[in-house]
Amino acid sequence: MDRVFFNKLLDTPSVSGFEAGAANLYLDYLQPGMTATSVDVMGNAYAYLKGTGGENNKKFLIEAHIDEIGFQVIYVNDAGYVYVRRNGGVDLQCIPGSQVVIYTAAGEEITGVIGKTPIHLVQPEERKKTIELDNLWIDTGLAPDEVKARVSIGDVVAWKSNAVMIGNNRIASKGLDDKIGVFVVSQVMKRLAIADRRTAADVWGVASVQEEVGCRGAVVCGYKVAPDIAISIDVDFATDVPCCSKQKFGDIALGKGVVVRRNLDTDSRLTSDIVRMAKDCGIPFQVSACPMPTGGTNAARIQLSRDGVRMLSLGIPCRYMHTPVEVCDMTDVEAAIDLVVQIVGKL
């Protein structure tokens, strides 16, 4: 696995709707070994490998979303404090005290911190209330006039890069949802590009956009590629933490393998095939029925494109989703890469 590329991907901001920098990094990384690369109107990034089976090849789509949750500037007050609204489902309980970067329309990067009223100055009954985003602000440390001159309404705001390895082969970072899935796609495409691993099928590896705000990029890429089989890769809820009900959400743990999802967004026969495949190949895996019968990932939208798509959905177990410190295990990533390569080669 190319950890250098993975770190670059995590360090490149890609808040929903503003994914171009990370998408270009993805395409630049893959382009040398691909048949073609391209970007559509939405910003979805396509890496394409022509199959060896002739003109009427079957088509595989391997997809993960490259956007991360973040913010956009909605107001700057006279004192120079910056107020934002969310792009995606940011966990508001976790953001006071966070370090963020404002990416301005002029191309500047302004570092700030998310501030709130100190707990000492808040009435006891107020301390129990849910945090509201309009009661938080970004403090850049700059003079008010300078903030107003440099920061514009609509400027994008992302958490500051913070990736770090912890424990035994585990990574903590903002944006693992779902840059870790995009990393899986990139490594699969690299392996499939090797001459003796080329498949009969055409393969599209797509870093899709705007999943966190309604799976919008997935609608376009599913329609554009019109695949015979699609594999969507996203993070999955790890339940190996305190106060998380396995009876309600299933038993999913870090380090025990890639998650094979079995709900209405997936083709049941194909899912059974890949479970057998994982067993035969000795690839560690876990099975999830998912918290909901349908929805929650791009798989639900791609499945319904055109005349329908035979869909597979895989997950990387993730703790603390939608916070600045998501945690995944790189051994699960390796299992996901191995399984997808097997799926494309054998199905």
Helix content: 25-40%
Strand order of the main beta sheet, please? 1-2-12-3-13-16-14-15
Largest sheet, if any?
A: 8 strands, mixed
SS-based structural class?
Answer: alpha+beta
* Mean pLDDT across all amino acids: 95
| Total domain count | 2
Percentage of β-strand residues: 25-35%
> How many DSSP helices?
10
CATH class wording of the largest domain: Alpha Beta
Q: Roughly how many Å is the radius of gyration?
A: 21 Å
Span from first to last CA?
Answer: 24 Å
- The CATH architecture of the largest domain is 3-Layer(aba) Sandwich
Description of the molecule:
An 8-stranded mixed beta sheet has the order 1-2-12-3-13-16-14-15, sandwiched between helices. It has 10 helices and 17 strands. The chain has 2 domains: 3-68 and 175-346, 3-Layer(aba) Sandwich (Aminopeptidase); 70-159, Elongation Factor Tu (Ef-tu), domain 3, CATH 2.40.30. With 347 residues, the chain is of the alpha+beta class. Helices cover 28% and strands 27% of the residues.
Please name the defining characteristics of this protein.
347 residues, alpha+beta, Aminopeptidase, Elongation Factor Tu (Ef-tu), domain 3, six-stranded antiparallel β-sheet, 27% strand
Concise account of the structure shown:
By secondary structure, the protein is an alpha+beta fold. Helices cover 28% and strands 27% of the residues.
Sequence-ordered SSE layout with sheet pairings:
Blueprint lengths: L2 H9 L8 H11 L5 E4 L5 E5 L9 E7 L4 E7 L5 E6 L11 E5 L5 E7 L8 H4 L9 E3 L4 H7 L5 E4 L4 E3 L3 E4 L2 H17 L9 E7 L7 H10 L3 E9 L8 H4 L8 E4 L6 H14 L3 E4 L10 H5 L6 E9 L7 E4 H17 L1
Helix pairs in contact: 1-5, 5-10
